[in-house]
Amino acid sequence: MSFIDCVNNRNSILMEGALGERLKREYRLVFDEDVVMAGLVYSDNGRRALKELWSEYAKIAGIYHLPFLATTPTRRTNQERVGRSKFDSTIIHENVKFLREVQELQDVEMYIGGLVGCKGDAFTGEDALDLESSKDFHEWEVRLFAEAGVDFLYAALFPNVEEAAGMALAIEKYKIPYIISFTIKKDGCLIDGTRISDAIKYIDSLTANKPVCYMTNCVHPRIVYEALLQPFNNNEMVHNRFKGIQVNTSALSYAELDNSKDLKVAEPTEIAVDTVKLREISPFQIFGGCCGTDGRHMSEIAKRI
Protein backbone atom coordinates (compact mmCIF):
# COMPACT_ATOMS: atom_id res chain seq x y z
CA MET A 1 0.00 0.00 0.00
CA SER A 2 1.28 3.48 -0.83
CA PHE A 3 1.33 6.37 1.62
CA ILE A 4 -1.54 8.02 -0.28
CA ASP A 5 -3.58 4.81 -0.15
CA CYS A 6 -2.91 4.59 3.58
CA VAL A 7 -4.19 8.12 4.22
CA ASN A 8 -7.20 7.58 1.96
CA ASN A 9 -8.22 4.27 3.51
CA ARG A 10 -7.20 4.25 7.17
CA ASN A 11 -9.15 6.23 9.76
CA SER A 12 -6.38 6.15 12.35
CA ILE A 13 -2.62 6.45 11.85
CA LEU A 14 0.06 6.59 14.53
CA MET A 15 3.01 8.93 14.06
CA GLU A 16 6.21 8.80 16.08
CA GLY A 17 6.43 10.42 19.49
CA ALA A 18 9.19 12.70 20.72
CA LEU A 19 12.74 12.15 19.50
CA GLY A 20 14.73 15.28 20.30
CA GLU A 21 13.93 15.69 23.98
CA ARG A 22 14.33 11.99 24.65
CA LEU A 23 17.65 11.80 22.82
CA LYS A 24 18.98 14.63 24.98
CA ARG A 25 17.53 13.59 28.32
CA GLU A 26 17.51 9.80 28.18
CA TYR A 27 20.57 9.19 26.01
CA ARG A 28 22.56 12.33 26.86
CA LEU A 29 23.36 12.92 23.22
CA VAL A 30 24.75 16.26 22.06
CA PHE A 31 23.38 17.64 18.82
CA ASP A 32 25.32 19.38 16.06
CA GLU A 33 25.17 23.18 16.17
CA ASP A 34 24.05 23.46 12.56
CA VAL A 35 22.15 20.34 11.46
CA VAL A 36 21.04 19.37 14.99
CA MET A 37 19.80 15.75 15.12
CA ALA A 38 20.61 14.89 11.51
CA GLY A 39 24.26 14.37 12.41
CA LEU A 40 23.43 11.51 14.79
CA VAL A 41 23.28 9.10 11.87
CA TYR A 42 27.09 9.22 11.74
CA SER A 43 27.65 7.95 15.29
CA ASP A 44 27.06 4.49 16.74
CA ASN A 45 25.37 5.92 19.83
CA GLY A 46 23.15 8.14 17.73
CA ARG A 47 22.06 5.32 15.46
CA ARG A 48 21.41 3.01 18.40
CA ALA A 49 19.28 5.61 20.18
CA LEU A 50 17.25 6.49 17.09
CA LYS A 51 16.68 2.83 16.29
CA GLU A 52 15.47 2.12 19.83
CA LEU A 53 13.02 5.03 19.84
CA TRP A 54 11.58 4.35 16.39
CA SER A 55 11.30 0.64 17.21
CA GLU A 56 9.47 1.42 20.44
CA TYR A 57 6.91 3.57 18.65
CA ALA A 58 6.57 1.08 15.78
CA LYS A 59 5.90 -1.73 18.26
CA ILE A 60 3.07 0.31 19.80
CA ALA A 61 1.54 0.82 16.35
CA GLY A 62 1.77 -2.91 15.74
CA ILE A 63 0.06 -3.80 19.01
CA TYR A 64 -2.95 -1.68 18.07
CA HIS A 65 -2.88 -2.61 14.35
CA LEU A 66 -2.18 0.94 13.20
CA PRO A 67 -0.06 2.18 10.29
CA PHE A 68 3.06 3.96 11.52
CA LEU A 69 4.71 7.16 10.25
CA ALA A 70 8.34 7.98 11.07
CA THR A 71 10.35 10.92 9.78
CA THR A 72 14.05 11.59 9.40
CA PRO A 73 15.43 13.97 12.08
CA THR A 74 16.29 16.55 9.45
CA ARG A 75 14.16 19.64 10.17
CA ARG A 76 17.27 21.84 10.20
CA THR A 77 19.05 20.19 7.27
CA ASN A 78 18.70 22.90 4.65
CA GLN A 79 21.34 24.11 2.19
CA GLU A 80 22.40 27.06 4.32
CA ARG A 81 22.94 25.02 7.49
CA VAL A 82 24.57 22.07 5.76
CA GLY A 83 26.84 24.50 3.90
CA ARG A 84 28.29 25.89 7.11
CA SER A 85 28.50 22.51 8.86
CA LYS A 86 31.12 19.76 8.69
CA PHE A 87 28.70 17.67 6.62
CA ASP A 88 27.69 17.72 2.95
CA SER A 89 24.52 17.04 0.97
CA THR A 90 24.84 13.26 1.43
CA ILE A 91 23.53 13.75 4.98
CA ILE A 92 19.96 13.65 3.69
CA HIS A 93 20.53 10.41 1.78
CA GLU A 94 22.23 8.85 4.82
CA ASN A 95 19.32 9.73 7.11
CA VAL A 96 16.76 8.28 4.70
CA LYS A 97 18.89 5.17 4.19
CA PHE A 98 19.18 4.58 7.93
CA LEU A 99 15.47 5.00 8.56
CA ARG A 100 14.79 2.51 5.75
CA GLU A 101 17.09 0.06 7.53
CA VAL A 102 15.10 0.53 10.72
CA GLN A 103 11.86 0.07 8.78
CA GLU A 104 13.01 -3.31 7.49
CA LEU A 105 13.30 -4.57 11.08
CA GLN A 106 9.72 -3.68 12.01
CA ASP A 107 6.70 -5.94 11.75
CA VAL A 108 4.25 -3.13 11.02
CA GLU A 109 2.87 -1.13 8.10
CA MET A 110 5.38 1.73 8.17
CA TYR A 111 5.99 4.78 5.98
CA ILE A 112 9.14 6.88 5.79
CA GLY A 113 8.89 10.67 5.71
CA GLY A 114 11.51 13.29 5.01
CA LEU A 115 11.24 16.03 7.63
CA VAL A 116 11.75 19.59 6.38
CA GLY A 117 11.39 22.82 8.31
CA CYS A 118 11.26 26.58 8.02
CA LYS A 119 14.42 28.65 7.66
CA GLY A 120 14.04 30.74 10.81
CA ASP A 121 12.40 30.41 14.21
CA ALA A 122 9.36 28.12 14.15
CA PHE A 123 7.85 29.64 17.29
CA THR A 124 8.28 33.36 16.66
CA GLY A 125 8.38 33.55 12.86
CA GLU A 126 11.67 35.46 12.97
CA ASP A 127 13.58 35.27 9.65
CA ALA A 128 10.56 33.79 7.85
CA LEU A 129 10.73 33.74 4.06
CA ASP A 130 8.29 35.13 1.53
CA LEU A 131 6.70 32.93 -1.12
CA GLU A 132 9.32 33.09 -3.88
CA SER A 133 12.30 33.11 -1.50
CA SER A 134 10.89 30.06 0.24
CA LYS A 135 10.38 28.17 -2.99
CA ASP A 136 13.97 28.85 -4.07
CA PHE A 137 15.49 28.22 -0.63
CA HIS A 138 13.77 24.90 0.07
CA GLU A 139 14.09 23.36 -3.40
CA TRP A 140 17.58 22.09 -2.50
CA GLU A 141 16.54 19.73 0.32
CA VAL A 142 13.30 18.75 -1.41
CA ARG A 143 15.24 17.57 -4.46
CA LEU A 144 17.59 15.50 -2.30
CA PHE A 145 14.71 13.85 -0.47
CA ALA A 146 13.06 13.06 -3.80
CA GLU A 147 16.27 11.43 -5.00
CA ALA A 148 16.51 9.46 -1.74
CA GLY A 149 13.04 8.03 -2.33
CA VAL A 150 11.01 8.98 0.73
CA ASP A 151 7.36 7.94 0.91
CA PHE A 152 6.26 11.46 1.79
CA LEU A 153 7.58 14.82 2.98
CA TYR A 154 6.58 16.35 6.27
CA ALA A 155 6.93 20.15 6.36
CA ALA A 156 6.72 20.74 10.10
CA LEU A 157 6.49 23.74 12.42
CA PHE A 158 5.77 26.42 9.83
CA PRO A 159 4.83 29.69 11.58
CA ASN A 160 3.93 31.77 8.53
CA VAL A 161 1.76 30.98 5.56
CA GLU A 162 4.03 32.48 2.87
CA GLU A 163 7.00 30.24 3.68
CA ALA A 164 4.71 27.22 3.99
CA ALA A 165 3.23 28.00 0.57
CA GLY A 166 6.69 28.38 -0.94
CA MET A 167 7.67 25.01 0.48
CA ALA A 168 4.53 23.48 -1.04
CA LEU A 169 5.46 24.89 -4.46
CA ALA A 170 8.99 23.50 -4.13
CA ILE A 171 7.62 20.05 -3.27
CA GLU A 172 4.95 19.81 -5.94
CA LYS A 173 7.60 20.05 -8.65
CA TYR A 174 8.81 16.60 -7.56
CA LYS A 175 5.35 15.04 -7.21
CA ILE A 176 5.98 13.69 -3.70
CA PRO A 177 3.02 13.34 -1.32
CA TYR A 178 3.43 15.82 1.51
CA ILE A 179 1.90 17.20 4.68
CA ILE A 180 2.11 20.82 5.85
CA SER A 181 2.13 21.27 9.62
CA PHE A 182 1.70 24.72 11.19
CA THR A 183 2.64 26.20 14.52
CA ILE A 184 -0.63 27.61 15.79
CA LYS A 185 -2.08 29.53 18.73
CA LYS A 186 -5.35 29.15 20.62
CA ASP A 187 -6.77 32.17 18.78
CA GLY A 188 -7.01 29.92 15.72
CA CYS A 189 -4.14 31.50 13.81
CA LEU A 190 -0.61 30.71 12.76
CA ILE A 191 2.18 32.63 14.45
CA ASP A 192 2.01 35.26 11.68
CA GLY A 193 -1.68 35.91 12.44
CA THR A 194 -3.10 34.02 9.45
CA ARG A 195 -6.23 32.08 10.27
CA ILE A 196 -5.86 28.31 9.85
CA SER A 197 -8.78 28.30 7.41
CA ASP A 198 -7.22 31.08 5.31
CA ALA A 199 -3.82 29.36 5.29
CA ILE A 200 -5.33 26.12 4.00
CA LYS A 201 -7.38 27.92 1.37
CA TYR A 202 -4.35 29.93 0.20
CA ILE A 203 -1.98 26.98 -0.14
CA ASP A 204 -4.59 24.75 -1.77
CA SER A 205 -5.34 27.49 -4.31
CA LEU A 206 -1.67 27.87 -5.26
CA THR A 207 -0.82 24.22 -5.76
CA ALA A 208 -1.82 21.64 -8.35
CA ASN A 209 -0.27 18.87 -6.22
CA LYS A 210 -1.99 19.90 -2.99
CA PRO A 211 -0.84 18.74 0.45
CA VAL A 212 -2.29 15.36 1.40
CA CYS A 213 -3.52 17.13 4.51
CA TYR A 214 -2.56 19.76 7.10
CA MET A 215 -1.48 19.23 10.70
CA THR A 216 -0.03 21.00 13.69
CA ASN A 217 2.79 19.93 15.97
CA CYS A 218 4.54 20.81 19.22
CA VAL A 219 1.29 22.08 20.72
CA HIS A 220 -1.05 20.88 23.47
CA PRO A 221 -4.34 19.42 22.20
CA ARG A 222 -6.40 21.80 24.36
CA ILE A 223 -4.86 24.72 22.47
CA VAL A 224 -5.76 23.07 19.16
CA TYR A 225 -9.29 22.33 20.41
CA GLU A 226 -9.80 26.00 21.18
CA ALA A 227 -8.21 27.07 17.90
CA LEU A 228 -10.50 24.87 15.81
CA LEU A 229 -13.61 26.06 17.64
CA GLN A 230 -12.99 29.62 16.47
CA PRO A 231 -15.94 30.39 14.16
CA PHE A 232 -13.71 31.09 11.16
CA ASN A 233 -12.07 27.63 11.49
CA ASN A 234 -15.17 25.63 12.37
CA ASN A 235 -16.14 24.80 8.80
CA GLU A 236 -16.19 21.92 6.32
CA MET A 237 -12.94 22.89 4.59
CA VAL A 238 -10.91 22.80 7.81
CA HIS A 239 -12.64 19.60 8.95
CA ASN A 240 -11.76 17.92 5.64
CA ARG A 241 -8.18 19.15 5.33
CA PHE A 242 -6.79 19.57 8.87
CA LYS A 243 -6.23 15.99 9.97
CA GLY A 244 -3.43 15.55 12.46
CA ILE A 245 -1.41 16.57 15.48
CA GLN A 246 1.89 15.80 17.14
CA VAL A 247 1.10 16.74 20.71
CA ASN A 248 3.21 18.62 23.22
CA THR A 249 2.34 17.57 26.76
CA SER A 250 2.49 21.15 28.08
CA ALA A 251 -0.43 23.56 27.74
CA LEU A 252 1.91 26.56 28.00
CA SER A 253 2.23 28.95 25.07
CA TYR A 254 5.25 28.85 22.77
CA ALA A 255 6.63 31.99 24.43
CA GLU A 256 6.31 30.44 27.89
CA LEU A 257 7.89 27.16 26.80
CA ASP A 258 10.76 28.96 25.10
CA ASN A 259 11.77 30.45 28.45
CA SER A 260 11.27 27.27 30.46
CA LYS A 261 14.33 25.49 31.82
CA ASP A 262 12.63 22.15 32.52
CA LEU A 263 10.54 19.77 30.46
CA LYS A 264 6.81 20.01 31.11
CA VAL A 265 5.25 16.55 31.15
CA ALA A 266 1.59 15.53 31.52
CA GLU A 267 0.34 12.14 32.61
CA PRO A 268 -0.11 9.74 29.65
CA THR A 269 -3.83 9.14 30.23
CA GLU A 270 -4.55 12.86 30.59
CA ILE A 271 -2.78 13.80 27.36
CA ALA A 272 -4.38 10.89 25.49
CA VAL A 273 -7.89 11.87 26.56
CA ASP A 274 -7.28 15.50 25.56
CA THR A 275 -5.81 14.41 22.23
CA VAL A 276 -8.59 12.08 21.19
CA LYS A 277 -11.15 14.69 22.28
CA LEU A 278 -10.19 16.60 19.12
CA ARG A 279 -12.30 14.08 17.21
CA GLU A 280 -15.38 15.63 18.80
CA ILE A 281 -15.00 18.65 16.54
CA SER A 282 -13.02 17.35 13.54
CA PRO A 283 -12.25 13.90 12.03
CA PHE A 284 -8.57 13.79 13.05
CA GLN A 285 -6.68 10.91 11.51
CA ILE A 286 -2.93 11.22 12.30
CA PHE A 287 -1.78 11.21 15.91
CA GLY A 288 1.81 11.61 17.06
CA GLY A 289 3.85 13.07 19.87
CA CYS A 290 6.28 15.91 20.35
CA CYS A 291 8.01 17.39 23.42
CA GLY A 292 7.21 15.61 26.67
CA THR A 293 5.85 12.44 25.09
CA ASP A 294 7.34 8.97 25.28
CA GLY A 295 6.14 5.43 24.73
CA ARG A 296 3.65 5.66 27.60
CA HIS A 297 1.86 8.61 26.01
CA MET A 298 1.86 7.05 22.56
CA SER A 299 0.49 3.77 23.94
CA GLU A 300 -2.43 5.55 25.57
CA ILE A 301 -3.16 7.51 22.40
CA ALA A 302 -2.88 4.42 20.20
CA LYS A 303 -5.23 2.50 22.49
CA ARG A 304 -7.90 5.18 22.07
CA ILE A 305 -7.67 5.68 18.32
Automatic annotation (TrEMBL):
<feature type="binding site">
    <location>
        <position position="291"/>
    </location>
    <ligand>
        <name>Zn(2+)</name>
    </ligand>
</feature>
<keyword id="KW-0862">Zinc</keyword>
<keyword id="KW-0479">Metal-binding</keyword>
<keyword id="KW-0489">Methyltransferase</keyword>
<dbReference type="InterPro" id="IPR036589">
    <property type="entry name" value="HCY_dom_sf"/>
</dbReference>
<protein>
    <submittedName>
        <fullName>S-methylmethionine-dependent homocysteine/selenocysteine methylase</fullName>
    </submittedName>
</protein>
<dbReference type="Pfam" id="PF02574">
    <property type="entry name" value="S-methyl_trans"/>
</dbReference>
<keyword id="KW-0808">Transferase</keyword>
<feature type="binding site">
    <location>
        <position position="290"/>
    </location>
    <ligand>
        <name>Zn(2+)</name>
    </ligand>
</feature>
<feature type="binding site">
    <location>
        <position position="218"/>
    </location>
    <ligand>
        <name>Zn(2+)</name>
    </ligand>
</feature>
<dbReference type="InterPro" id="IPR003726">
    <property type="entry name" value="HCY_dom"/>
</dbReference>
<dbReference type="GO" id="GO:0032259">
    <property type="term" value="P:methylation"/>
</dbReference>
<feature type="domain" description="Hcy-binding">
    <location>
        <begin position="1"/>
        <end position="305"/>
    </location>
</feature>
<dbReference type="GO" id="GO:0008168">
    <property type="term" value="F:methyltransferase activity"/>
</dbReference>
<dbReference type="GO" id="GO:0046872">
    <property type="term" value="F:metal ion binding"/>
</dbReference>
